[in-house]
Design a protein that fits this description.
single chain; alpha+beta; 6-stranded antiparallel beta sheet; two-stranded antiparallel sheet; globular; binds adenosine monophosphate; binds magnesium ion
Length: 466
Amino acid sequence: MIRFDNSYARMPDGFFARVRPTPVSAPALLALNDALAERLGLTPALLRSAEGVSVLAGNAIPRGAEPIAQAYAGHQFGGFVPQLGDGRAVLLGEVMAPDGARFDLQLKGSGPTPFSRRGDGRAWMGPVLREYLVSEFMAAMGVPTTRALAAVGTGDMVWREEGGLPGAVLTRVAASHIRVGTFQYFAVRDRRDALAALTDHVIERHYPDATGPLDLLNKVVARQAQTIADWMSLGFIHGVMNTDNMAISGETIDYGPCAFMDVYHPDTVFSSIDRNGRYAWAQQPQVAVWNLAQFATCLIPLMGDEEQAVEDATKAVHSFGPLYQTAWQQRFGDKLGIEGAPNQQLIERLLTLMAQQRADFTRVFTGLAAGTARDEFTDRAAFDAWARDWQALSPDMATMRRVNPVRIPRNHRIEEAIAAAVAGDMAPFDRLFDAVTHPRDPRPEWDDLSRVPLQSEVVQATFCGT
Ligand code: AMP
Ligand code: MG
């Protein structure tokens, strides 16, 4: 039923631990992504059957799967941890889609593994449904991202600071789950052989044109510059940009306490554990460079003459700046329907006005095409002065409507959907999913989902739920 070809399970010793998901008491399907199932060549009806749900819960292992937990290390908030690894996830295997594309199929929240440390290996419904909604919105907007195939309730309680919460398992789909931290795991152990094998694997799988480690580094830097520019253009804040949460494929990965800004401010942070704002919205490009420098450090032993290698790797990491700058100008230019590069000042003037007047990030850009942006500002005269200069450039409305979502998964709506799901009602989740996976469709019945949160609805902090 599922066509597996598990290339990672063929990697040398030390890359992973073979481990089976731990069965759950009462699997119940919460959500299934039919479109993604079909993309993978899977039959939605089969996944919905009792047998399918038991696979999605980790209670049955499908034929051809070779479940493993992957080893990785990582810098968490700047501090290096030599061993992290999949502590609450199991890679079932790699699915070959009908078009030949290879995808990891991973169960997240599937029970303890040799990498769990003190954790229980479980997830509760909140983070599972948050990741489901946010990653699928990103995919709908064309942002490189892991995907969500299914969410299953486990029937078991998970114990967190907040008390007992209903457990869930997310089926995550990714180009791969190889992270900067995967390279760090072998680099810190001086396993040059393993680093070389990992590099070959990554080149073959994600960057077949790369001519070697340096070229790979350049290509990873270039992809990350695009992904981060995408995040910025949507007001997205990842929240935990640790090196173990940065995918080599360039996909957005490990949605934890992530969120989209309502009111625009560059210093916005949601994550309850990010007390110093290390991963605030405006910090994300710099953090990406920092993470990529860690990746570069891992590759240096594979790059020949050390002095030359350091020089080349440094140059590669620094190429992020101009690549990102160009991508940023392109994204924000498109958001305003104008040429970005020559109009950087105009873009920045708007962002400054938005920050000063606490304007809603999403509504301003949609409003510019709809003629309602002015309503988002308190000092209308200041906005009008900016708008005259912008109008003088004859903005292209079609581009604006293509790139600016009418709605995003707003934090308060995600929380509302989670609260209902915990109470047994999936209707708000289903509706929000439908609306955010059609983010450009101005359907009036979804107008309430475009509205800003009332003061009482504003979500101040998001939690990892780990
Ligand atoms: P994350 O916050 O998802 O980036 O996770 C950081 C590390 O903690 C990874 O190694 C995870 O596998 C591990 N981890 C997070 N939550 C749990 C949990 N409930 N049980 C076991 N390991 C966990
Ligand atoms: Mg992680």
